[in-house]
């Protein structure tokens, strides 16, 4: 590539993870080669850190980990570097809006996630249940402070309506994003993947001019625009592709799109190259 890339940043779901929510051996080999050649590696995901830590450990190389869309940062040594929660009163205010029972509501706490209903689709995202759900009645809980507030529904249009309802009354409190079309997430106003990445770059005496990033969701939008090179996954929603039409679209997550791009365009190798794990 013409740009001098020193930092590689990737989302997980729909990006580095395939449809089975795992990282392929091929992708692992490419990331290990990037580490061997001195690239700084950052994984930035909407997942909770207890869920994401064992996934990134499988890469077999040190990475910075940004989780809950930027509410947590862990060092390559798994040291917590940054944390920011939504305060309890702000969450109580949202839940008091009278949210229909058709929505699954989730609060991501430090060690468990609280939910109003069992949702098998959410559980399927964890190959290993390191971060367990607890079924609760939110009206009976005193402290609702959380890393992230999450809603899902089988209709995107209903989530859009809920988003507008919450934003109308709390525009100065929350940041929000659709990590997937059926996954609506709210964080503290000052939380975003791009802001967390900026903190890491400052620690490493680097800057966005040396970065490349990969993503497939609306929670990746600011990150993709901030980096010197932003790549949109082929499996990203058409609406996101249209909004980010100035960025290149690459292969899908199921076709190892990230690893193949990095191998060919950053490491300057043929995509048939196989590294020994």
SSE blueprint:
Layout: E1 7-10, H1 12-16, H2 25-36, E2 40-44, H3 49-57, E3 64-67, E4 72-74, E5 80-83, H4 88-95, E6 104-108, E7 112-115, H5 120-123, E8 132-135, E9 148-152, H6 156-170, E10 174-180, E11 183-188, H7 193-203, E12 211-215, H8 221-226, E13 229-232, H9 238-243, E14 248-249, H10 257-266
Parallel strand pairs: 1-2, 1-12, 2-3, 7-8, 12-13, 13-14
Antiparallel strand pairs: 3-4, 4-5, 6-7, 6-9, 9-11, 10-11
Helix pairs in contact: 2-10
Detailed description of the structure:
The protein is α/β, with parallel strands linked by helices and 277 residues long. Helices cover 31% and strands 22% of the residues. The protein is built from ten helices and 14 strands. The chain has an eight-stranded mixed sheet with strand order 5-4-3-2-1-12-13-14, sandwiched between helices.
Key structural traits:
277 residues, alpha/beta, eight-stranded mixed sheet, six-stranded mixed sheet, 10 helices, 14 strands, globular
- Subunit arrangement of the protein: single chain
Q: How does the helix and strand content classify structurally?
A: alpha/beta
Order of H and E elements: EHHEHEEEHEEHEEHEEHEHEHEH
Spans of at least 5 consecutive residues with low confidence:
none
Distance linking N and C termini: 26 Å
Sheet of most strands: 8 strands, mixed
Number of strands: 14
Q: What fraction, in percent, of the residue positions are helical?
A: 25-40%
């Amino acid at each position: 590539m013409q740009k001098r890339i020193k930092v590689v940043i990737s989302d997980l779901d729909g990006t580095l993870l395939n449809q089975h929510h795992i990282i392929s051996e091929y992708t692992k080999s490419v990331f290990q080669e990037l580490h061997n050649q001195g690239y700084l590696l950052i994984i930035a995901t909407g997942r909770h850190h207890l869920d994401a830590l064992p996934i990134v450990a499988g890469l077999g190389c040190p990475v910075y980990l940004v989780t809950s869309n930027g509410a947590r940062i862990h060092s390559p040594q798994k040291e917590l570097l940054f944390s920011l929660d939504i305060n309890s009163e702000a969450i109580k205010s949202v839940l008091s809006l009278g949210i229909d029972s058709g929505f699954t509501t989730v609060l991501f706490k430090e060690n468990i996630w609280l939910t109003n209903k069992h949702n098998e689709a959410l559980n399927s995202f964890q190959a290993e249940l390191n971060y367990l759900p607890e079924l609760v009645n939110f009206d009976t809980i005193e402290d609702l402070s959380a890393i992230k507030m999450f809603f899902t529904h089988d209709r995107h249009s209903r989530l859009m309506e809920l988003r507008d309802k919450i934003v109308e009354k709390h525009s100065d409190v929350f940041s929000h994003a659709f990590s997937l079309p059926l996954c609506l997430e709210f964080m503290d106003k000052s939380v975003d993947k791009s802001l967390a990445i900026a903190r890491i770059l400052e620690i490493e005496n680097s800057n966005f001019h040396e970065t490349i990033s990969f993503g497939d969701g609306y929670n990746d939008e600011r990150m993709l625009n901030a980096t010197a090179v932003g790549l949109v996954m082929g499996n990203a929603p058409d609406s996101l592709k249209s909004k980010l039409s100035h960025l290149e679209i690459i292969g899908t997550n199921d076709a190892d799109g990230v690893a193949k791009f990095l191998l060919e365009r950053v490491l300057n190798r043929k995509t048939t190259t196989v590294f020994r794990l």
